[in-house]
Amino acid sequence: MTDYVVKDIALAAYGRKELDIAETEMPGLMALREEYGTSKPLAGARIVGSLHMTIQTAALIETLTALGADVRWASCNIFSTQDHAAAVIAESGVPVFAVKGQSLTEHWDYLDRSFQFADGANLILDDGGDATLYILLGARAEAGEDILAVPTSEEEEAIKVQIKKRMEESPGWFTKTREAIVGVSEETTTGVHRLYDLFRKDLLPFPAINVNDSVTKSKFDNKYGCKESLVDGIRRATDVMMAGKVAVVCGYGDVGKGSAASLAGAGARVKVTEVDPICALQAAMDGFEVVVLEDVVETADIFITTTGNKDVIRIEHMREMKDMAIVGNIGHFDNEIQVANLKNHKWTSVKEQVDMIEMPSGNRILLLSEGRLLNLGNATGHPSFVMSASFTNQVLAQIELWTKGEDYKPGVYILPKHLDEKVARLHLERIGVKLTELKKDQADYIGVTVEGPFKPEHYRY
Ligand code: NAI
Fold first, then answer.
1. Are 131 and 187 in the same domain?
2. Ligand 1 pocket at CB < 6 A
3. H-type helices in 300-412, by residue range?
4. What's the gap between Cα 264 and its chain centre?
5. Same domain, yes or no, for 154 and 261?
6. For residue 257, how far is its CA from the centre of ligand 1 (angstroms)?
7. Does residue 33 share a domain with residue 71?
8. I need a surface site. Which of 43, 95, 142, 333 has the fewest CB within 10 A?
9. Does the interface predicted TM-score (ipTM) exceed 0.85?
10. Cβ pair 104, 78 in contact under 8 A
11. What CATH code is carried by the domain that includes residue 329?
12. Residue 145 maps to which CATH number?
């Protein structure tokens, strides 16, 4: 029996061509293959990946296997898979369970299947925390907690159904799996929030490395990645003329900064909403008008949420929007926009991941990817180069957990600064950056060493 679920395995040849191109833009990952390909520090590691199954992720997977790991993979979002990327990974012999447009039921079934190593999984590579959540919730249910009985959203119902199924099929499986996991590395802001929350509640049983807060992740992927991929998603979805339009970006964190820059670069007139006075001041001083949503909801053309928060664009906002306003989210989960409250309206599917929804006033809105992250749903996510920086951190985190995991107590950790600087350094040559070298007396003068780290821990970049 084939140990994968992909849309079409015949797409593998196309996937391989794109993967070959991606590798030329992923110098960090390629350098790790060079550095560790012989010593294989991940030998014995059985890694479950739950992260958008894109071409860039395929390059990550092939790096993990080149370093000795056994890997099984699922996507962390129902719309983000690139089917040719999944196909090339399946063909290479790595079990992968991911189809663009899979249902929520399939989402959790595929995640469960990615845990089914013959000898059990021992590491998680997570994006948004679903893989970690699945195991920890399941183990709590096995311990007799009544967490599956509480009625919740459609999304949470789907995970509960899958947990119940696994509990019936293999009693004790969650607890056994939780005990075998030596650690998790987490890719994104939302997943990191979940980890700190688990830790505060004393519910985190293993060490977690917060990859998101490596400087070479959040200050690059979240920012420069979204700068390229947000407008890409809107254009592929709608072909709308961006120049001259009024766009509202909700949230001015790392993703918001990249998103506002993306829209401004395309000629849109960008307004920002924020709750944090520091980020609001940053937006204003970057030249964006900072507004409250209620004041612009009737006049703006494009609305993008980037907050990682819930209920940011609500039904009462969407009711006020002008005809053919575009509404989308680039944060991790779809609850930034109250999509559930639109369900009883008239939906017309324009094409995959683009819906036109008629509001009571007769005005229509164009909703992208049903409110799920549109840069991966409507386009192909961030470019390879920036993902190379993110995924080089991921691989270093997995090596750290696998080779030194026992040194860590349960908790959430960030990779040391010298590794952050290493990741950046690996990406300089590809774009012709020449670094100035410190002289010894200069290094002494500013209190660092010639080799770095070049900044104190509290420096914010
Ligand atoms: P962040 O914490 O840097 O920024 C979020 C900002 O939203 C904060 O400044 C916060 O003050 C603001 N905010 C919160 N509630 C708000 C509200 N009701 N109205 C207006 N502003 C509000 O987080 P970051 O790194 O920018 O990530 C944001 C989301 O994007 C997360 O869910 C993250 O996981 C996701 N993400 C998505 C990526 C993608 O490719 N689509 C890439 C990286 C992260």
1. yes
2. 188-190, 218, 221-222, 225-226, 250-256, 273-276, 279, 306-309, 312, 330-332, 373, 375
3. 315-320, 374-377, 384-404
4. 23
5. no
6. 10
7. yes
8. 43
9. yes
10. yes
11. 3.40.50.720
12. 3.40.50.1480
Active site (catalytic) residues:
52, 75, 80, 127, 187, 212, 217, 221-222, 226, 332, 382, 390, 394
Give me the domain span that covers residue 346.
Answer: 224-378
Any idea of the CA torsion for 394, 395, 401, 402, to the nearest 10 degrees? 150
Domain termination residue (choose one: 378, 412, 434): 378
Please report, in tens digits, the pLDDT of each residue of the chain (461 residues total). Answer: 799 999 999 999 999 999 999 999 999 999 999 999 999 999 999 999 999 999 999 999 999 999 999 999 999 999 999 999 999 999 999 999 999 999 999 999 999 999 999 999 999 999 999 999 999 999 999 999 998 877 677 888 999 999 999 999 999 999 999 999 999 999 999 999 999 999 999 999 999 999 999 999 999 999 999 999 999 999 999 999 999 999 999 999 999 999 999 999 999 999 999 999 999 999 999 999 999 999 999 999 999 999 999 999 999 999 999 999 999 999 999 999 999 999 999 999 999 999 999 999 999 999 999 999 999 999 999 999 999 999 999 999 999 999 999 999 999 999 999 999 999 999 999 999 999 999 999 999 999 999 999 999 999 99
Could you tell me the CA-to-CA distances from 279 to 43, 107, 190, 249, 257 in Å, in that order? 43, 35, 18, 12, 9
Q: Which residues contact 449 (CB under 8 A, 6 or more apart)?
A: 443
